[in-house]
Design a protein that fits this description.
single chain; about 220 residues; mainly alpha; Arc Repressor Mutant, subunit A; 2 domains; about 70% helix; globular; TetR/AcrR family transcriptional regulator
Length: about 220
């Protein structure tokens, strides 16, 4: 055997080389993991299947992320960190409360045209009481709801607001508008596919936002 081969450090069979772990693009992995969890559900997703889709070893994912539970949390936190600022920016605008509320609803409806994977995940996880639902609610839904409650209270001090709870309003936005834009095959079968295609989705989102705002904010008189 060549002396250089004998002198080369050997690694344990079945363990990925450290440089292979470091070379794996984290955004690519987390994006694929989130998309798979959203499409197949937690139970229908395995690390072995993800490793095949990425073209890497199963052990590499174990070294990088540990358990499937850990990968789910990392993927969800990563995806929400990407998607949330677009909507939440409306809370911090230098404008009065009603303007910020209008912008928030408009942004949320537009957000729904771009984030069907998040809508799908919340639809799957929202129907069962699990540690995953606890994570989503505690870290993302409740903080948003508190800010929305505060904003609605500020608007109510200035003008009439329809007596609709924030859970109901958020359901209309996520499971209503969000599902409408994420379930494109259904809309196509119903004859409304053109409303949600790439060329028309933004305009349709604006129409839906106007509809919701008209119901939420009745005329002041």
């Amino acid at each position: 055997m060549d002396q250089q081969m004998l002198d080369r450090p050997q690694r344990a069979r079945g363990r990925p080389a450290l440089n292979a772990v470091q070379a794996l693009d984290e955004d690519q992995l987390l994006g694929l993991a989130f998309a798979t969890f959203a499409e197949r559900g937690y139970e229908g997703t395995t690390l072995r299947d993800l490793s095949k889709r990425l073209g890497v070893s199963h052990n590499l994912l174990n070294v990088r992320f540990g358990r499937k539970e850990d990968l789910w949390v990392r993927a969800v936190d990563w995806r929400m960190a990407q998607a949330s600022p677009f909507v939440e920016a409306a809370f911090d605008e230098p404008a009065d409360a009603e303007v910020r509320l209008r912008h928030l609803i408009q942004r949320f409806c537009l957000w729904a045209t771009r984030n069907g994977d998040i809508v799908s995940l919340t639809n799957v996880e929202g129907c069962r009481s699990t540690w995953r639902l606890d994570h989503i609610v505690e870290h993302f839904v409740l903080p948003f709801q508190r800010r929305l409650d505060d904003l609605l209270d500020a608007v109510r001090r200035r003008r009439p607001v329809h007596d609709l709870s924030t859970p109901a309003l958020m359901a209309l936005l996520v499971q209503g508008v969000g599902f409408y834009f994420s379930a494109v095959p259904m809309q196509q079968r119903l004859g409304a596919g053109g409303e949600v295609d790439d060329a028309h989705a933004a305009a349709q989102a604006d129409r839906l936002a106007g509809f919701l705002l008209a119901a939420l904010l009745p005329p002041a008189g």
